[in-house]
UniProtKB/TrEMBL annotation:
Function per UniProt: Probable transporter of a GTP-driven Fe(2+) uptake system.
Main subcellular location: membrane
Membrane topology listed for this record: Multi-pass membrane protein
Residues in FeoB-type G domain copies: 3-164
A Pfam family assignment: FeoB_C
Keywords: Cell membrane, GTP-binding, Ion transport, Iron, Iron transport, Membrane, Nucleotide-binding, Transmembrane, Transmembrane helix, Transport
TM helices/strands, residue ranges: 284-302, 347-371, 391-414, 426-450, 456-476, 515-536, 548-566, 616-639, 651-670, 676-698
UniProt protein name: Ferrous iron transport protein B
Record family assignment: Belongs to the TRAFAC class TrmE-Era-EngA-EngB-Septin-like GTPase superfamily. FeoB GTPase (TC 9.A.8) family.
Annotated compartments: Cell membrane
Record NCBIfam families: feoB (TIGR00437)
Organism annotation: Candidatus Enterococcus murrayae
Amino acid sequence: MAKTHIALAGNPNSGKTSTFNVLTGTNQFVGNWPGVTVERKEGIYKKDSEVIIDDLPGIYSLSPYSPEEVVARDYLLSGTPDAIVNIIDGTNLERNLYLTTQLIETGIPVVVAVNMMDIIKKSGKQINLEKLSYALGVPVVGISALKNWGLDKTISEALHLIKKGAEEEVSFPHYDNRLEAALSEIEEVLGSTAQARYSRWYSLKLFERDERAQKDLDLSSIQQKEIGEIIKITEKIFGEDAESLVINERYNFITHLKTLCVVDEDQFKLSISDKIDRVVTNRFLALPIFALIMWLIYYIAIQTIGTMGTDWMNDNLFGDIVPNFVSSTLQSWNVAEWMQSLILDGIIAGVGAVLGFLPQLMVLFLCLALLEDCGYMSRIAFVMDRIFRKFGLSGKSFIPMLIATGCGVPGVMASRTIENEKDRRMTAMLTTFMPCSAKLPIIALIAGAFFPNSSWVAPSAYFVGMGAIVLSGIALKKTRLFAGDPSPFIMELPLYHMPRIGNTLRYTYDHSKAFVKRAGTIIFVSSIVIWFISSYNFSFQSVDENDSILAALGGLIAPLFAPLGWGDWRGAVAAITGLVAKENVIGTFGILYRHTEVAENGVEIWKSLQAAYTPVAGYSFLVFNLLCAPCFAAIGAIHREMADVIWTWRAIIYQCGLAYAVSFIVYQFGHVLFENGAIGIGLILAAIILAAMIYFIVRKPVKKAPTITIEEIKEVKEWQL
Ligand code: GDP
């Protein structure tokens, strides 16, 4: 007789492994799913050797976005499992139930096991399991994998369901009537193309334009066309794309479930975490507290503690010790003059200028790691979600932004978690406005050279980045390209805890290591190139840097930046080399200013900068480099996420355009207000651009499709036919 297969499915950390271990003991077999490196575990149920338990990988949904989701989905639809036991973390119902709705829709019998009941009991909350079962239309059992509560009952419920088999009337989560109407029409079009038990699944997946589902079914062209029309009409009615429409509906269903089933008995007994949250996520206090914390972090990292280290690195290590040692060694070896210049004025000046900022970066990373590990950063995501939502943006965009404070590349990649395509594109386009670690040296340099006594300048860079994201988001959401409701975002707020030393040190070490690695690779090579083209002319003769190839090329583009206040060739070249890697902005200054005067220490760069630009021009330079197109690696990441050349160009043009416009406004206004600059055409232009920007932010959004009823869908459809 064929054995009975029960699949364990659930989110990562829901307690699946613990459950699997209790159910199967030592009778486990571990391998890989075919073709991928995702682990596959199978075991024999301890109390019945005819029952095989299959442990699926931890997943959040059945959309085919990750290898884990794909193997789980393929396996479920393969017909092997007779039932699914869905382990959900009861302390985190909303997020876990998202997968539950999809599992039920596969048509396979599902038993929901609400895990962590031991914690729920202690917390004073109560989940009404009967109501949950009623509303989901499947059996629900409360379990604790840790204490072995309810596990055998779960399996016996599953076996009972399997026995009942076809007699059982299957019910699915019920969504908005207009969506339901569309789904039943798709089911009709499908007819017998999909097995009856999977027809709900396929109608939903086809509605979401899921490519794998389309491939699985091998639809005729007439079917494809009809389904395409149903989707288009429904999208028109809801005014949003099909995929996000389904996601919204799932979350609406879940929110309703939660209010129905969860009772907070002890509302007045607040935990310490709750008490802290009352303050830090308070409607009015949250943002000022966040601003204060970020100011403090930048103050510590850039203005005070981190600076001591950086000063030492710049003044002594790379200003004195290393150059002197290398110089005397090279001289004693009688190394050719040009080689000495390459090593001293190129590599050490370029790489050294960048590495000098390592202490400030390390302190910044350490502070960010502490905030992250103690649980504060997730509060900020929560607070930002509330604000973003008011403007029609998704709070999900904040997570990529947080990641981008380390490096824009993973930041952009993190936008993949946003299901709504428009929001995803917008996030990929805006995320790199955040100051990443490579931009930090630019911030520190400008703050140190022009504003040594103003502690607001360095943190202001963080807020300029964030402001650019939020305001761009608001303005872009009002355009046709990005209009639509935001992706829903439900996040868990972990309890606060003392930061773990190991975690914070590892975070700091990993990020610092990446920075040093870049200095040793891409910055190293760039420094050689920059040294060469700033030391030679087009006939490859060694010349003064003002006659060099770089000066000639820089001179061509420099006038472009003159309206921003820093139109000399050195600034222009620094900004352009920043495209290769943002650290190059500093590396380039390091090399160029070392040519003009033999620097005693790093502060010489400050002096040269002060001589070249006014403070407002310096700030305008900072703003431009913060906002303009990121480095090539991040542009590559944007291209991968957009999967479209035109969209990638749109992103680059938007970023550079915004950077130019904001720096122009900063310089023109700042120069008149703070540096007694003359009022002229520049200021008028800046005022016009500023007014245009404000208009795009405050204007009314493009019209969304009106909401109409199910009867009207039919009318629209008839009218279309
Ligand atoms: P998986 O990622 O879904 O496989 O989850 P694990 O089985 O690894 O569990 C994640 C964490 O939750 C582990 O630290 C477990 O010890 C803990 N855990 C699992 N089930 C329970 C439970 O019922 N109660 C409590 N208190 N902790 C649990």
